[in-house]
Amino acid sequence: MTFSADRNLFSRRDLLFAAAGGLALASAFPARAAENAKGVEPPMASAVPYIEHRLSHDGHMIYAREYPGKEPAYVMLHGFPDNLHIYDYVVPYLTRAGRRVVVFDFLGFGQSEKIAPGNYPYTFKQQVGDLAAVVDALKIEKFIPVGHDSGGPCAANYALDNPDRVAWLCLMNCYYAESPTLRLPEIIEVFGDPWLKDLAQAFLTSPDKMDWLLRFQDQHFQVNMPPNLKERFVGILRPIVDGNFASGAGPAFAQMTSQVRDNVAYNTTRLPDVRRFAPQVTLIWGVLDPYLTPAAATAIAANYPHSTVKPVQTGHWLMIDAPEEVAQLLLTEA
């Protein structure tokens, strides 16, 4: 299957496969969510006043939170398999500096609408449309897209299409184009490689096997972490992910992961545009990430004419591991 920016190429079989995967993922999570309910510390963003928005894209509801402040706004994009709550610890530092911040859940994740399995093709193009719908509805004329993980390609491609709307671009531990440095987590490879569909199906038909795969992936994300960051991973990140799946994000996750390689191929065709991109690009990067490593950051940065890499001694979810430092780096570029 070849990715197209202009039309959806999911077959009915692909949609049903992804839907089944999402339901199996959801069934594996309630026990884990309860097991990890105790967090390291309460999310500080819950104490910061915000405005809730329920916005429309393609006739479906996107959930967003807006923290008022001065422009240009930070519009922060999550990846998979998480949601807007990964930014709960960094947002207060930005609002304390008086800045406007918007976080939202892509369709199928978090509190945004989850369309009945098999009835909606979640795609990377749709996510760029989600971002456009949010900033247009909130009348945000110029802003800083902050893209983490699979939210990185969304931020980058929106910026390429709308450079006059972008003050500068921030990428955090994400991927973009083909590169020798690109290494994806094992769970993404299992669900994203069409040659591994039989293996993926074996996991999907057994909640116990799926739970084993999820725990395997957890351990590998933590391989380079010191004890304090492992505590934050288990106490903060894991409940976000588990709660996300338990609330029905599985179908979106299964569909999106099945398109990652096609998305990388499409992004590679956009490298000539990347090399002409005028605004500043800052890559704030957790250097303990065992998959999207510092070498991956350097490879991405090399394609932009005006780029800087700022390393942070954290894992993949740097906004959870070191929120104050990440916020300061965001504010330094403003």
| CATH architecture classification | 3-Layer(aba) Sandwich
Number of domains: 1
The total count of helices amounts to 14
What structural category arises from helix and sheet content?
alpha/beta
End-to-end separation in angstroms reads 41 Å
Q: How can the largest sheet be summarized?
A: 8 strands, mixed
Helix content: 40-55%
CATH class: Alpha Beta
What is the succession of H and E elements? Answer: HHEEEHEHEHEHHHHHHEHEHH
Strand content: 15-25%
Note poorly predicted spans. 1-17
Number of strands: 8
How would the global form be characterised? globular
Note the topology.
Layout: H1 12-27, H2 30-35, E1 51-57, E2 60-67, E3 70-77, H3 91-96, E4 99-104, H4 124-137, E5 143-149, H5 151-161, E6 169-174, H6 186-192, H7 197-204, H8 207-221, H9 227-257, H10 260-269, H11 271-274, E7 281-286, H12 294-301, E8 307-312, H13 318-321, H14 323-333
Parallel strand pairs: 3-4, 3-5, 5-6, 6-7, 7-8
Antiparallel strand pairs: 1-2, 2-4
Features:
globular, Rossmann fold, alpha/beta, 334 residues, 8-stranded mixed β-sheet
Would you kindly provide a written description of the structure presented here, covering whatever features stand out?
- With 334 residues, this protein is α/β, with parallel strands linked by helices.
- It has one domain (12-333): 3-Layer(aba) Sandwich (Rossmann fold), CATH 3.40.50.1820.
- The chain is built from 14 helices and eight strands.
- The chain has an eight-stranded mixed beta sheet with strand order 1-2-4-3-5-6-7-8, sandwiched between helices.
- β3, α3 (91-96) and β4 form a beta-alpha-beta unit.
- α1 packs antiparallel against α9 (227-257) and α4 packs across α5 (151-161).
- The longest helix has 31 residues, at 227-257.
- 48% of the residues are buried.
- The model is unreliable at 1-17 (pLDDT under 50).
